[in-house]
Amino acid sequence: MATLDHQAATWLAFDFGEKRIGVAIGNTLTGGARPLCTLSANPVAERFARIAGLIKEWQPQSLLVGLPVHPDGSSHPFAQRCQRFANQLSGRFGLPVQLEDERYTSALAPERDEVDAQAAAILLQGFLQGLENAKVHTAQRQG
How does strand 97-101 pair with strand 62-67? Predict the structure, then answer.
């Protein structure tokens, strides 16, 4: 996986599942994220064609994939599939891909209709806030 540049950048986030993949978009300039769409996880060729279209349309600098973790922090059995998906994204599109703990994102999604895309937006929003907090913390230490 590539090293991430924390300057102003557009991100696409993915809540990967066996049947559906929620997608969200956000950027580091505003620190905001919003649900974008939900893709069918299968067939695989169609999945990656749709993702290629989203990448062409939104031109993100980086990608984020949710990593399932048990509430106690231990590894979830599905985590390996998410890691594989992240590796495929990196290999196919040549973009930096970050994995992020997705605990409770689906439970926090307010509507059931677009739960996967909303979960991706919650994941990305939390990640972007973490980047901003790290930037502020670093600036305070240097100042």
Answer: parallel
133: CB partners within 8 A, 6+ apart = none
What's the pTM value of the predicted model, to 2 decimals? 0.83
Bridge partners of 98, per DSSP, are 64
Provide the token pair at 35: 């649900």
3-state class (DSSP) for residue 23: strand
Q: Position of tokens 């973009």?
A: 95
Contact 130, 101 (CB under 8 A): no
Asked whether the beta carbons of 61 and 9 are under 8 A apart, the reply is: yes
- Phi, psi for residue 72 in degrees, rounded to 5: -85, 5
Complete domains list, the chain, with CATH: 12-142 (3.30.420.140)
Q: How confident is the model at residue 5 (pLDDT cuts 50, 70, 90)?
A: very low
Q: The tokens of 64 are what? A: 């984020």
